[in-house]
Structures are given as C-alpha cells and as structure tokens.
Write a structure and sequence with these properties.
By secondary structure, this protein is α+β, with helices and mostly antiparallel strands. A hairpin with a 2-residue loop joins strand 8 and strand 9. The protein folds into 3 domains: 67 residues, Uridine Diphospho-n-acetylenolpyruvylglucosamine Reductase, domain 2 (2-Layer Sandwich), CATH 3.30.43.10; 151 residues, Uridine Diphospho-n-acetylenolpyruvylglucosamine Reductase, domain 3 (2-Layer Sandwich), CATH 3.30.465.10; 105 residues, UDP-N-acetylenolpyruvoylglucosamine reductase, C-terminal domain (Uridine Diphospho-n-acetylenolpyruvylglucosamine Reductase, domain 1). Helices cover 25% and strands 30% of the residues. The structure holds flavin-adenine dinucleotide. Flavin-adenine dinucleotide (FAD) binds next to strand 3, strand 8, strand 12 and strand 13. It comes from Candidatus Kaiserbacteria bacterium CG10_big_fil_rev_8_21_14_0_10_44_10. It is found in: Cytoplasm. Its cofactor is FAD.
Length: 342
C-alpha cells in the first residue's frame, strides 16, 4: 500500500519550541520513519520548498515572521544495541527523546551518557551542536551518524571524524553539512564503569562520597545540580544557555585576568582559552537576573535567557544584543549565541 503523506499548512511553531516563541511554518509534517522522511523530502524538491528539520525545539529561536518551506518534525524512533566484549554500540532513532534514552542506558549499565542527563530535546540533535555538559561531550561517544543528504539524495553513514566535532560545533552547523538530516545515531558505550566526576560541581557533590559512585548516583547528581542551575523548561520559556562560552587567545585572556581578578579560563590548546561567560555576565557586567519587559537572564544562571511569558523572538534578540554589546564594551569579546536561529 502506498504511504499517504500528511502535510499541514500554516502551523504555529511556538508550541513546538521550549522558548514558546515562533511564527508560522508554511508547511509542516511529522516523519515517523525513514521512508516517510525521504518521501517528504521528495515532495519538497518537487514543490521547490526549503526543508528545515525540527527535533524537540529546545535549541531554537524561531523568528516572529515564521519559516518558509517545509518543516519536518523528526519522530523516527527505535533503539537497538550490539555488545562487543565490554563495548556496547547503541543505535537510537533521531526522534527518540534524549533524556529517556539516557535513562535507558543508565538502567542497562551502559556507561558514557550519564553526565548528559536531563538535557531536553532529541537524539538526532545531539551531534548537531555536539551536546555537552559536566565534562562530557557527546561527540567523544559517537561511533556513527546515519544521515540523509538532501543534496545528494542518498543515505550516508558518517564516522566521528566526518562529523568534525568541536565545542558546541560540528559539520552539521557548516555549509558543508546543512543539507544533512540525522536519521539515527550510534553511541559507543561501555559495560566497564567509567565515572567522570572531575567537573567542579560533580567533584564537590561527591567530595564526601565513599567509594566510586554508581551510574545512577551520577545521573541523580546531575539532575539535582541542573535543577538549581536551569529553570524548569516546562514552566518557563527558555532554550537553556543562550550564549556559548567564548574561546579567546591566551594573550587576550591574560590581559582580562589582570583586569578582572579570578576570571575563570580553561586552556583548550592552540594557544586559546575557553572563558566562563557566566562569570563575566555576573561579575563584570552585573547582568544576573537583569530583565527588560518579558525577557531576562535567569536568576540562578546568567547564560540562560527566559521568556517570562508573551515575549517575541525580536524581544529575545534585542535583549541578547544588549548583553552582547555590554560584554564587548567591558572585555572586547564578541560573544555568539548558542541556539539556531530560524
Ligand atoms: C533547560 C535547557 C537546558 C539545556 N542544557 C543543555 C546542555 O547542558 N548542553 C547542551 O549542549 N545543550 C543544552 N540545551 C540545548 C538543547 O537542549 C540541546 O542542544 C538539544 O540537543 C537540542 O535538541 P532538540 O531536539 O530540541 O533540537 P531542536 O531545537 O529541535 O533543533 C536544534 C538544531 O538542530 C537541528 N536538528 C534537530 N534535529 C535534527 C536532525 N534529526 N537532523 C538534522 N538537524 C537536526 C535543527 O534543525 C536545529 O538547527 C539545553 C536546553 C534547555 C531548554
């Protein structure tokens, strides 16, 4: 039997984003299988429609004027695994909910993803910005990403190296990878315990813990720490950290560290230093909890912007510009936003 495609017109995207913001998608469809997804891309090609792929909408700022073309919400699901000695290769469909997937790996005793607990969104988006938290980046655990190339109209299996992972970055964010739709991701996990608790907050949390914490204890710790640092995205409009921590030259960092005593910086090689933007926003710019109208920085974490209700994408952008200007004025650092803008 032929597959019947359901494509809606004029769909508001606000309820599909955790910011609760966004205009109308000209066309909107849900892909629950690879077959439906490829048929939708064929439809888009025939009708000359640009394709945009949506996961959980937790890293997106959709413009008030909406999105032209076809928005495909990826809901491809399935989880399979293969054990090779102590290695477990777990493949998850791009539309699987990320945190439910992480919980499953913890319950199975497959080590690797526990530090990335409680991050909203889908599996398919994790390679896009190389999702990271508490000392772990997903790119280091990725074995393969299966994609559909809109340009070449074919399926491609990409290795970790092909993905060119960087800090909150990958090939998928560049011109070379913008036409790639993630269908599934294979993570290389381990049955051997490998607790990663060196990151400051986790190290403090476990400082009085006797013995090695279990995977579930690490997950619970991350969930608890995050609940104090991030607003509940089911209650407040937010996309999590709105700005990336900037990476600057060592010379620039040394100059700033003289001016602002205690400025945290982490050398990341190539003569560059990743600087804590949260610290700059708090101590240098005094923007913690700042608010204009219905937009503000979160009182517990200045990197996080909040839509307190009824804010538009322009309100968020304008507020972000004032933050950007203030940081530049004080530090000569040009900060970049983390969420994708549509
Ligand atoms: C409260 C909160 C806390 C957060 N904490 C963190 C954190 O600690 N670390 C972190 O890294 N991020 C964090 N985020 C950001 C966000 O949750 C992640 O980036 C997440 O992976 C985005 O997933 P998503 O499915 O919602 O993607 P979406 O927002 O739907 O999409 C984001 C981008 O990915 C693209 N995309 C999505 N799915 C696919 C696909 N299948 N194929 C191709 N492109 C695709 C979209 O086109 C878009 O460009 C946080 C967000 C919130 C709201």
């Amino acid at each position: 039997m032929d597959t019947v495609l359901k494509i809606d017109q004029e769909v508001s995207l606000a309820s599909y984003t955790t910011f609760g913001i966004g205009g109308i998608a000209e066309y909107f469809a849900i892909a629950s299988s690879e077959e439906v997804l490829t048929l939708l891309t064929e439809y888009a090609r025939e009708h000359d429609l640009r394709v945009s792929v949506l996961g959980g909408g937790s890293n997106l700022l959709v413009s008030d004027s909406g999105v032209k073309g076809l928005v495909i919400k990826n809901e491809i699901k399935d989880i399979t695994h293969k054990v090779e000695n102590e290695k477990v290769l777990v493949t998850a469909g791009a539309g699987e909910e990320w945190d439910a997937f992480v919980l499953r790996t913890v319950e199975e005793g497959w080590w690797g993803l526990e530090n990335l607990s409680a991050i909203p969104g889908t599996v398919g988006a994790t390679p896009i910005q190389n999702v990271g938290a508490y000392g772990v980046e997903v790119g280091n655990l990725i074995e393969e990403v299966k994609v559909y190339s809109l340009r070449e109209q074919k399926f491609i299996a990409m290795t970790k190296d092909d993905c060119r992972f960087g800090y909150r970055d990958s090939i998928f964010k560049s011109e070379a990878g913008k036409d790639l739709i993630v269908l599934s991701v294979t993570y290389s996990l381990s049955t051997t315990p490998n607790p990663q608790i060196h990151y400051k907050d986790l190290a403090e949390y476990f400082s009085n813990h006797s013995g090695t914490p279990s995977q579930l204890e690490i997950r619970d710790a991350v969930v608890e720490i995050r609940s104090k640092k991030f607003p509940d995205w089911k209650k407040f409009g937010t996309a999590g950290s709105f700005f990336k921590n900037p990476v600057i030259s060592t010379a620039h960092f040394n100059e700033l560290a003289k001016q602002y005593e205690g400025l945290p910086g982490y050398p990341i090689g190539d003569g560059t230093v990743k600087v804590s933007l949260g610290w700059i926003l708090d101590k240098v710019c005094e923007l913690r909890g700042a608010r204009t109208g219905q937009v503000g920085t979160y009182e517990n974490q200045s990197l996080v912007l909040i839509n307190y209700g009824g804010a538009t994408a322009s309100d968020i952008s304008n507020f972000a510009e004032t933050v950007k200007d203030k940081v530049f004025e004080k530090t000569k650092i040009l900060i970049e936003m983390e969420p994708t803008r549509w």
